[in-house]
Amino acid sequence: MYLTEEEKKMLEGNYGQGTQLAMKILVAIGEAYDAPKMVPVTRTHVALSNQEADLWFAEKLTAGEAVCRIRPTVNPSFNLEQFQAITDIDREDEEIVKRTHAAYTKLGAIMTYDCTPYLEKNVPRFGEIISFSESSATPFVNSVYGARSNRESAQSALCSAVTGVTPYYGFLLKENRAGQVLVHVEADMEDDFTYQMLGYFAPKKIGFSIPVFEGLTNPSKEALMNLGAQLNTGGNVALYHILGFTPEALTMEDAFQGKKPQYEVTITNNDLKNMREEISDKNGKIDFALYGCPHFTIDQVCTVAEMVKGKKLSVPLFIMTSSLTRSLSQKMGYADIIKTAGGEIVEDTCMDQPCWKFLYGKKGITDSPKCAYYTKRRDMQFIIAPLKESIYAALKGEY
Amino acid sequence: MKKQYDCHKISGGKVTGQLLFSDDGMCFYLIEPKDGKIIEKEHCLYQKSVAGKILVFPYGKGSSVVQADGMYQLKMTGMNPAAMIVVNADTTLAASAIILDAPMVNKMDDDFYKDFHDGDMVELDADNGILRKI
Known about the structure:
The structure holds two protein chains of two kinds. By secondary structure, chain A is α/β, with parallel strands linked by helices. Chain A folds into three domains: 5-174, Aconitase, domain 3 (2-Layer Sandwich); 178-277, Rossmann fold, CATH 3.40.50; 280-396, Aconitase, domain 3, CATH 3.30.499. Helices cover 42% and strands 13% of the residues of chain A. Chain A has a five-stranded parallel beta sheet. Chain A has a four-stranded parallel beta sheet with strand order 8-7-6-9. In chain A, strands 3-2-4 form a three-stranded parallel beta sheet. The radius of gyration of chain A is 21 Å and the shape is globular. Chain A starts with a helix and ends with a helix. The relative contact order of chain A is 0.12. Chain B is an alpha/beta fold. Chain B has one domain (5-133): Glucose Oxidase, domain 1, CATH 3.50.30.10. In chain B, 20% of the residues lie in helices and 28% in strands. Chain B contains three helices and eight strands. Chain B has an eight-stranded mixed beta sheet with strand order 1-8-7-3-4-5-6-2, covered by helices on one side. Chain B is globular and about 35 Å long. The chains are: A alpha/beta, B alpha/beta. Chain A binds chain B through residues 25, 28-29, 31-33, 47, 49, 51-54, 56-57, 75, 133-136, 138, 150-157, 170, 203, 207-208, 232-236, 238, 278, 370, 374, 376-377, and chain B through 8-11, 25, 29-30, 39-40, 42, 58-69, 71-73, 76, 88-96, 98-100.
């Protein structure tokens, strides 16, 4: 693959071993996809995860004195200070949080600890070439904004942050962004929750193809967050289009770039109902409620606050969100209302973290299939239900 | 049966091992690192172990961190697959294999899928993009 003089210098180690490693990996990825060259990126987002592989790789880069040329925003780990007040944190877990923070800070990352960077702090424009990991963020920036990112892993995005470039292939090229399958949505898309189910179910019908959804009217930002997050839990869909709504699909002609759909599928109420029954735990008593996968918006926090105002929750309720949204919740009084009812807004935190040990073996309720999916490894069971119904369940203690 | 089957390198290496076919996509995070067994109930290989196998699957699934962490954990316990043959390799999956030096190929000769079954012993030379029956 063609490399510029500057890229060759990086590869040959002129900027240190960390930058060299990052460039080596990008070249290997480029060769795997037959990319002809590298292209500059103007934004990056790294799915920091606070897991062993994450720390191992970040420390490998810092040991080689890498510093990011395009400073990335980062995903959540868990908020040590807040969780030490809620539960006992194991020493080794405290250690990994601190080491991960130190490594990324040294790399020059912007420590946002938020999985919805596209709502605040890192918002790309149409056509911008970027390197975004976080599988719920990539489809949002690609589909809703029309920015161009491949489905980066945390590490490949970090390599692009360090070098400022990414191999030119895949979704960076217009011709690879054409819709492939036309999806007729006949289900009643009455609330943001139905988009969770649509996202989780659709990959079973469309496999690896780029879907063009037809029949969706004016989805909210939360609906779009849900759709993208679940498309990448049930499957692997870094780009989708919504006919007449997303910027690359205003017409059928645009959506399929003049070609015909490879095939068409229809998704009904029954499909979504059956999907939910398959992945949700049985109704009954619950021990807790957990929200914010992806991180809750201020509007979702407001919904919870309005429902629990002046009431007492029967089970603990936790909302994960960005530090900015938590701060806003405090200013607007939502945090106090939720706290008084027995709930907690936690910032900078992901559900897939060891800080939730006190919930292992217990049964919760959530509105997010993604939240339920990844916590399987942590022995947490979840009933999956629409937001308002699930808050009602948290007030009652059962669903 | 052909003498050799062509494929395309994603991540290099040369290994021999038994084939294990999966009709479902793989999320390496939902594999128990202790024994390499798949813990995802809905998966067609539920409770089967991928350890030491040359794993053949259609695509990766899961978030942008879990493939790398899943593969890393398996590598630490030695319960990792010997190599991977994939149809659709998204960047998350490919980058994870490259970073962890795990052999991976795609674009495998169509005949491979007709001629081979679970348990067949093969040699996969990912660097040169060649698979042979042994």
